[in-house]
Write the C-alpha cells for this entry.
Amino acid sequence: MSARKLTLVHLYPREMNIYGDTGNVLVLSKRLQWRGLDAEVVRVQVGDPLPAGTDILLGGGGQDAAQGEIGRDFVSRGPELRAMADDGVVMLTICGSYQLLGHHFRTKDGRTIEGVGVLDVITTGSDQRLIGNNSIDTPWGRLVGFENHSGLTELGAGVRPLGATEPGRGNNGSDRTEGAVRANVFGTYLHGPVLAKSPQFADELLRRAYARRGSNADLEPLDDSLALAAADVASHRPR
Ligand code: GLN
C-alpha cells in the first residue's frame, strides 16, 4: 500500500479529554507506526487553524463547562467542519464532542451551546446520569467502552445509530440506540478509550482515510490478541 502520511487532528486536547479519550489518537498513530506507515498528529487548540490536509479528526469528551469554553471557537469552525465532512474526512467524536457535532446541546441549567450541525442530532441535559460499562455490536466489530453523561441525544433522519445498546443506556436511555454515523463521521458515548479495545473499528477508520486518498489496499494484519482479550474482559464487567 502506498505509504502516504496520514494527518490526524486532535481537537481541543486540553478541554475535551476525559476518561482517556486521547488514547484514541495514540491507538491510530500506533497502528500506523506498527505497519511502518507514517502519521502526523496535530493538536488543535482554541484559535488554532485546522490543517488543510486533515485525514482523521478526533475529539474527546468534556464536562458541560469545558463544552462552554470551546463552544464559540467550535461553532466558528462550523462551515469548515461541514465542508470537511462532506468531503469525506473521517471523524471520531466522543461524548461532549459528539454532542457539539450535532445541532445544539441545551444544558440542564438552561444554556444553549450551539453545535456545528455535522451530525443530525440534538442533545438535552437531564437530571439522570447515564453511567456504566457498555458495549455495542457494529458492522465494524464490537465497540467496548464506558459511558457517563447526563445529556440525552436524539437522532434525526440524517444519521443512523452506531449500534443497539443493551444493557447500556446509549444516546438517551430510552430508544436503545448508541452513537451516530453519517458517511465517514462517527459519534459515540463510549469512552475508554474506545479504540484501544476495538481494533477492527480503529482499522476501519484508517481504511476509510486511505480510501478517500485513493488507496484501497488492505492494511497489514496486526496481533490484536491483547486488545481483544481486554475487550472481552471489559464487556463482561458489571454496569
Ligand atoms: N457534559 C456532557 C454530559 O454530561 C458530556 C460529558 C462527557 O463528555 N462525558 O452530557
Summary: The domain at 6-235 is CATH 3.40.50.880 (Rossmann fold).
